[in-house]
Write a structure and sequence with these properties.
Helix content: 25-40%
CATH superfamily: CobE/GbiG C-terminal domain
Shape: globular
CATH topology: Nucleotidyltransferase, domain 5
Largest sheet: 5 strands, mixed
Distance between the termini: 31 Å
Number of strands: 7
Strand order of the largest sheet: 5-4-3-7-6
Number of helices: 6
């Protein structure tokens, strides 16, 4: 909470996971323009971004890495096998043929938002079971080669059955953003993290 001249302003929580699909070589600038445009169009605060999510073949995409580095955001990457299990409102046959899953942006956003719910639920259970009053040390992003931030991937995690896909948490369906002055395009979808209990209901 921030107070200023008698006014109380509620600072946004980081609850939005941004799913990204993009062509190889898409610039950081175009990715930022796309994300900003979608958030502005839907009147959402960019301070509420929890992180970005995409397919694992984009884990080395320079534009994505630079955007996440500059904004101090995690980048979660999922395999096509994981993404294609997630039910989405706008599957694409062309995307399925190209990368092995009918959705990247929407499925990645949904899957990342669900993982947060699982991790928070697991963390809360461990804290209650331990009975310790010590504060948990905040996780720090490990450093990769040459001081570059390590961007975690999620290939080792178990896929989520389609029957449990949290489609209700998709806040903004995929939006395709192009810029006439730049090559490439960016697909953006936004999912909101839900409590684990709500996602299991």
């Amino acid at each position: 909470m921030v107070a200023a001249k008698g006014l109380t302003i509620q600072c946004p929580s980081r609850v939005f996971w941004v799913g990204i699909g993009c062509r190889r070589g898409t610039s950081r600038g175009l990715i930022e323009q796309a994300v900003c445009a979608v958030f502005q169009a839907h009147h959402l605060p960019e301070d509420a971004i929890a992180g970005l999510a995409t397919i694992d073949t984009k884990a080395d995409e320079a534009g994505l890495i630079e955007f996440c580095r500059d904004r101090h955001l995690p980048l979660h990457c999922f395999s096509a096998d994981q993404l294609r299990l997630i039910a989405v409102p706008h599957p694409s046959g062309a995307i399925l043929a190209a990368v092995g899953t009918p959705s990247v942006a929407e499925a990645a956003a949904l899957l990342a938002s669900r993982e947060v719910g699982r991790e928070r639920a697991a963390g809360g259970a461990e804290e209650q079971g331990s009975g310790k009053e010590e504060q948990q040390e905040q996780k720090k992003l490990p450093q990769g080669e040459a001081g570059k931030p390590h961007l975690p991937t999620s290939d080792s995690r178990l896929p989520i059955p389609p029957s449990q896909s949290p489609t209700s948490s998709l806040y903004v369906p995929k939006q395709i953003v192009r810029n006439a002055g730049q090559s490439g395009l960016v697909t953006v979808a936004i999912a909101r993290s839900l409590p684990y209990e709500a996602m299991e209901a």
